[in-house]
Structures are given as C-alpha cells and as structure tokens.
Specification:
Number of helices: 3
Order of helices and strands: HHEEHEEEE
CATH class of one domain: Alpha Beta
Largest sheet: 6 strands, mixed
Strand content: 35-45%
Structural class: alpha+beta
Protein name: Nuclear transport factor 2 family protein
Pfam family, one: SnoaL_3
CATH topology of one domain: Nuclear Transport Factor 2, Chain: A
Number of strands: 6
InterPro entries: NTF2-like_dom_sf, SnoaL-like
Length: 159
C-alpha cells in the first residue's frame, strides 16, 4: 500500500473520529483531535458564528455546543480528501440531525435537520493527524437546475 493511500486513510479516520466525538459529546476526545497552540494557530467557523481563533476559543465553542445540544448526528456525504506532505484538506457535506433540550415530560426536544458544507484542514503531528481548521457554512438552498448556471435563460429578448 502506498504512503499516500495510507495518509489518506489516516486522515479519513481522523475526520470520522471528529464527527463521532461530537455525536457522543466527548469533549476530551474533541480536545485531543485539535492541534496544540504551539503547533500553529487553530481556527474554527461554525455556521453563523464569527471566526474563532486559538485553542481556548475554539474548544470553548465546542463545550457550549455540547452543553446545549441533547442529540446530534452527522451523515457525511461528498467526502473528498487531499493530502500534500504534512497537510490534508477534507471537504464534505454534513447532513445534521439535532435536537435541543426537551420540553417537560418529553424524552427529546424537537429534531431539526440542517445541511452544512465543511472544510477541515489537518496537520500531521508525531501523534497523528490533528485538526488545524474547521469551517462550516450552511446550505441555504439547493438548485436542481444546473443548466441555468450562466443566467442566459433569464436574459430578456431584444427582438
């Protein structure tokens, strides 16, 4: 097996571990998956949030999300991994199902679905691949009409 293929698989495993730790609400594992501050400044953008920089800010955001989310599940699609030397880029679509606090007498709060496109950047460390940056952007609308991308059909006729 080539080194590149092994790196790709290792990055895929690290990416999967990140989302599984989120699903379990495992803050310690989330912390372990991010680079230490001494290995390069980390950053994170959650959908609708400003850019968070530094390990403290980023990890606080995950603690906040986990504290206010009773249930979350990620179904990843369109996963693409690129590895160049000691840096890896993962792009994917996060199909998210989540639920907040339950109302009195209910097991779960209302479930909400959301689509987010994400970019995760990993760096190789002596301890394996670690997250350097995560950026998630909400998908606000889906268009099934790829033929109309240039807008030519919307132009008025001059005749």
């Amino acid at each position: 097996m080539s080194e590149s293929r092994t790196d790709t698989e290792a990055v895929e495993l690290a990416n999967t571990a990140f989302y599984e730790a989120m699903e379990r609400g495992d803050f310690d594992e989330i912390s372990d998956l991010w680079l230490d501050d001494g290995e390069g400044g980390i950053s994170c953008v959650h959908p609708g949030w400003p850019v968070l920089t530094g390990r403290g800010e980023v990890l606080r955001s995950y603690a906040l999300i986990m504290a206010n989310t009773d249930y979350i599940q990620f179904f990843l699609t369109d996963v693409k991994v690129s590895v160049l030397a000691d840096t890896a880029l993962v792009t994917c679509t996060e199909n998210i199902l989540s639920g907040g606090p339950a109302e009195e007498g209910a097991e779960l709060g209302p479930l909400v679905g959301q689509l987010v496109v994400a970019t995760n950047v990993f760096r190789r460390t002596p301890d394996g691949w670690r997250l350097w940056s995560h950026h998630g952007s909400p998908v606000l609308a889906e268009s099934g009409d790829d033929d109309d991308l240039d807008g030519a059909d919307d132009a008025p006729d001059d005749a």
